[in-house]
Amino acid sequence: MDHPGYSENKTKVIKRLRRVQGQVKGIEKMVDDDRYCIDVLEQVSAATRALQGVALALMEDHLSHCVANAIKDGGHEADIKIKEAYLAIERLVKS
Amino acid sequence: MDHPGYSENKTKVIKRLRRVQGQVKGIEKMVDDDRYCIDVLEQVSAATRALQGVALALMEDHLSHCVANAIKDGGHEADIKIKEAYLAIERLVKS
Amino acid sequence: MDHPGYSENKTKVIKRLRRVQGQVKGIEKMVDDDRYCIDVLEQVSAATRALQGVALALMEDHLSHCVANAIKDGGHEADIKIKEAYLAIERLVKS
Amino acid sequence: MDHPGYSENKTKVIKRLRRVQGQVKGIEKMVDDDRYCIDVLEQVSAATRALQGVALALMEDHLSHCVANAIKDGGHEADIKIKEAYLAIERLVKS
Question: B8-94, which class in CATH?
Fold first, then answer.
C-alpha cells in the first residue's frame, strides 16, 4: 500500500492529535496545581472523546479507501482487510 | 477543600498523564510517517484506554477521600458531592 | 442491609427493564423479518443505551443510599463499599 | 437487497437476542427480589456486553456482505453504504 487511508486528511489528523496532546498537558498542569478532582475528570472525559473522534475519522478514511480498494481488487486481500477492520472496530467499541 | 482526592497519588497521576502524552505524540509521528491506518488505530485505542485508566484512578481517590469526607461531615454538601460524582461517572460511561 | 439503594425507585427500575426487554424482543422480530442490518444495529445501540441508563440510575441510588450510609456508620464496611462501588464503575466504563 | 448480511447467521443472532432477553428478565427478577445493587449492576454490565457482542457480530456480517457487495457493484451505492456503516460504527462507539 502506497498511501494510508488518511492521506488526504493527514494535516487535519495531525492537528487533532496535537490538540489532544495540549489537552492532556493541560490536565497534567491541573493535577500539578491541585485542581479539584471533578474538574480534572471533566477534562479527561473531553480528551477521551477527542481521541475517539480521531479514531472514528481514521476509521472512516480507512473504510472508504483501504478497505474499498481491497474489495475492488478482490481476492483474499479483501477478506483480510474486512476482518482487520472488524477487529479494529471491536477494539474501538471496547475501549 | 485543601487537598484534592488524588493528593497522595499526585506523582503517579502526573506520570500516567505524561505517558499518555508520549503515546499521543507517538501516534502523531506514526501519522506523519504515513503508517498503516490499522496500526495507528491500535495505538489510538491503547491511548484511549490509558486515559480511561487515569479517569478511573482519579474517581477512586475522589470517592474514598472527597466524597467520603463530605458524607462524614454530613449536610447539604454531602448531597452535592454525591450528585457531582454521579454526573462525572455518567460522563465517563458515555465518553 | 434491609433495603437495596433503589427501593424508592423499584417500580421505575422494573418498568425500564421491561421496556428494554420489549426493545430486545423487537430487535429479535426485526432479525426474524430479515430487516436491514443498519436498522437492526440502530435498535441494538438504542437498547444498549437504555441498559446503560438503568445502570447509571442504579449507581446513583447505590451511592446516595448504600455507600452514603456505610460511610456515615464508618469503619471497615465503608472502605469495602467504596472499593465495591469503584469496581462497579470500572465494569460500567469498560462495558 | 434480498438478504440482510446476517442471513447465514440468523438462527445464531436470534438465539443471542433471546439470551439477552433472558438476562434482562433475570435482572428484573433480581430487582423485584430486592437483591443487592452491586449484584444487579454486575448483571446489567453483563447484559450490556452481550448486546454489544450482538452488534459487533451484525457489523461483521454487514461489512463482509452488504458493504463488500455494494463496493464490488461500484457507483454511488458503494459510497452510501460506507458512509452508513461509518455512522453505525460511530453510534456503537458512543453507546
Answer: mainly alpha
